[in-house]
Amino acid sequence: MTDHDLHDPLRRLAETAPAPAPGLAGDIVERGRTTRRRRLGAVAVAAAAAAAALAVVVPLLGSSGADRSAEPSVATDPTTPTEPAHPPGPSARMQVVAAAVRAHLNQNYPSYDDLWVRDSVCDRSETVGPGPVPCADLTEQEKTDLERLLQAYTIKWVGSVREIWSPTGQLNRPFVKISELEAVSTDGGSVFVYALRGGRDCAGVSYQVRLLPDGPPTVSPGDQFLIC
Amino acid sequence: MKGGDQAFTAFVDARSASLLRFAYLLAPEPTAAQDLLQTALLRTYLRWGRVRDNPDAYVRRVLVTVAADERRRPWRREVATAQLPEQASSNDPTAGIDDLDELRRALAGLPARQRAAVVLRYHEGLSAAQTADLLGCSEGTVRSQATRGLDKLRAALAPDSQEIGTGGDHD
Fold it and tell me: What is the DSSP code (8-state) at residue A76?
């Protein structure tokens, strides 16, 4: 058998094939459109998920130590309180928290890498004004994200909410002006300041500061503290 | 209807009969040819923007691939026989190929790649190079596949031949 011998039988066999179904092209186009829609739907879902993830991750990535100088500062713009119109959602809140932490650290802890975060204050569940939310509302994901942020500063996450203090008690910058103080408590001579409002970048973060020996027993908005 | 859809529809209207004949030879069974073609056309539609310059070649490539995939599934695996196909005899077995069903069964008994090589070379009239390009293999592979396929067809179509496999749907 040669190729020439086979060609004619194959041709005859092929000619026994049925005719294409009527409307074949239209059916294919319709199926193709449906397939495309499904694929686009899947892509859209994936893109939305990616965008949602980036919305959280990007601000956190922007908090690396190399970028500290570009971060907003509590002390450089302490007189412009920001009043959120509505309590921020989890991701927005994380951005606020992250910004506040960065600002505080940039300003006050530029050379310290032995900072810790713990939750002794916020576990009391005080409500600290219209913007900040009770600290205990942080989700596990938020804690993870914040911990990742704080790792850029070699800060350990200890508890569920935010309190920043220096184990050595030494801070580089002596003064922090508290433009709006929303809650204050004392604990063994320390003052826990919630919701330091230093412009756009501060809400819901509690800072442990120590009063000067002759400092006021309580603090009020606008008070200045020597952080030592 | 968009321009791309119009062009695709025109292509299908013009070429579907020829493509279905090709699919008919590739398909493991006659009833599978329509499904094979629809699958290939759907893939072509989804990539129309890239393949519209030469959609015919693309459809044929997809047909070969899909046919091979279908035949690669476990339940379609080739079932070996205890007896090897007979060697070619000096008698030309095609001289009496009037029974197209017999030819179809013989074709269906070929592994997918051999079948594709035989159809492309001896029905479509493609060169070894063209077939190799379409199958995504070397010309040498095409030649060996076509030769083996031809040998098996010769054996299967011999007057006292044995079936190559069972069920006519092997790979």
Answer: T
Q: What is the tens place of the pLDDT at every residue in B18-76?
A: 999 999 998 877 777 888 898 889 889 988 888 888 888 889 888 888 887 665 443 34
Note whether A28 contacts B38, CB cutoff 8 Å.
yes
Tokens of A174: 């002596």
- Residues of chain B with Cβ-Cβ distance to A28 below 8 Å are 8, 12, 38, 41-42, 45
CB-CB under 8 Å, B13 with A25: yes
The DSSP result for B71-91, as a single string, is: HHSGGG-----SSPPPPPPSS
The DSSP secondary structure of A39-67, one letter per residue, reads HHHHHHHHHHHHHHHHHHHHHHHTT-GGG
Closest of A6, A50, A17 to residue B125, by C-alpha = A6
Q: Which of B123, B145, B153 to mutate to test the interface with A (most CBs of A within 10 A)?
A: B123
> Residue B164 in contact with residue B152, Cβ under 8 Å?
yes
Could you tell me which of A190, A63, A206 has the C-alpha nearest to residue A133? A206
Structure tokens at B36: 């094979």
Longest dimension (CA), chain B: 59
Q: Among all chains, which residue has been given the structure tokens 């442990």?
A: A208
Spatial distance between the Cα atoms of A71 and A152, rounded to a whole number of angstroms: 14
Nearest CA in chain B to A4: B122
ipTM entry: 0.72
In chain B, where the domains are located: 3-74, 91-157
Q: In what order do the strands lie in the sheet with A115-117?
A: A155-157, A115-117, A163-165, A206-210, A190-194, A183-187
The residue with tokens 């829609």 is: A37
The architecture CATH gives domain B91-157: Orthogonal Bundle (1.10)
pTM of the model: 0.46
Domain residue spans in chain A?
Answer: 62-226
